[in-house]
Amino acid sequence: MTAETSQTLDRGLRVLKLLADTDHGLTVTELSTKLGVNRTVVYRLLATLEQHALVRRDLGGRARVGLGVLSLGRQVHPLVREAALPALRSLAEDIGATAHLTLADGSEALAVAVVEPTWTDYHVAYRTGFRHPLDRGAAGKAILAARQGLVDDPGFTLTHGELEAGASGAAAPLLGVTGIEGSVGVVMLSDSIPERVGPRVLDAAREVADALR
Questions:
Q1: The HTH iclR-type domain covers which part of the protein (predicted)?
Q2: Rounded CA gap, 148 and 13, in Å?
Q3: CA 185 → CA 40, 82, 128, 143, 179, distances in Å?
C-alpha cells in the first residue's frame, strides 16, 4: 500500500475478488484468514458491501457476490466494444466478411460488437445482441476451447452451417484478459473458410486482448 491508496477500499475489493473466485461462498473466518485481518474488520467490510448489494450472506452465513455487481457489469460491454472496434474494422475490411466480438454470458454466446465490411456486394447480417448456445458456432466453441484449456496450434476454430445454412465461421479466443471470456471471429457465406482467414482472426484476437489488458 502507498500513501495515495485506501487500505479499506483495497480490502473491500479483495473481498469481492475472493468471493468471485468461489462458487460456494466464504465464511467470515475464511475471509479473515485469506485477507490476514481479524474477523471484526471482515464483518465491517461485508456490512458495507451488503449495503450496496455487492455482497449477500446466505442462511448459513456464507458470503457470496451480490446482484449489485450486475448494474456495474452492464457498463462493461460498451468499454469492451470500444476497445475492440479498431481491430474488428481492420479484420472485416481485410477479409471481406462480418467480424464480431463475442462474450460468454452464462451458457450462451453474446455478440457485443459487430463490424460489416464496406466493400463487398453481400455479407452475413450479424447483429449486436445476437445470442446462441456456446456449443454451437465458431465463436462459442472458441470460448469453450479456452475454458477447457484446449487451445493449441492453430488456436482458432472453424465451423460450417451451425448457426445459419450456408455460412461458415472462424473464431479465436481472447487469452490473458482477466475477468472476460470471449472470442473474435468472422462469419461469411461460404462452404469453407479460406486458408488465410484463421491466422488473420487469431491475430485480431490478440490485438483485442492487448487492447483490453
A1: 6-67
A2: 28
A3: 49, 16, 13, 11, 20
Q: Which candidate, 101, 145, 144, 97, places its Cα nearest to that of 124?
A: 97
User: For the segment 127-183, what is each residue's pLDDT rounded down to a tens digit?
Assistant: 888 999 999 999 999 999 999 988 887 899 999 999 999 999 999 999 998 778 999
Residues 52-82 pLDDT 10s: 999 999 888 899 988 788 677 666 678 888 9
Shortest CA distance to 180 belongs to which of 46, 36, 48, 81?
Answer: 81
- Output the pLDDT for position 194: 95
CA dist 90 and 95 (Å) reads 9
CA distances from 37 to 27, 46, 109, 139 (A): 14, 13, 40, 43
Helices and strands per DSSP (H, E), number in the chain: 7, 8
Residue 129: CA count within 13 A, CB half-sphere:
0
> d(Cα 31, Cα 145) in Å, to the nearest integer?
32
| Reported pTM | 0.70
Q: How many other CB atoms are found less than 10 A from the CB of residue 106? A: 8
- The whole-angstrom separation of Cα 166 and Cα 59 is 52
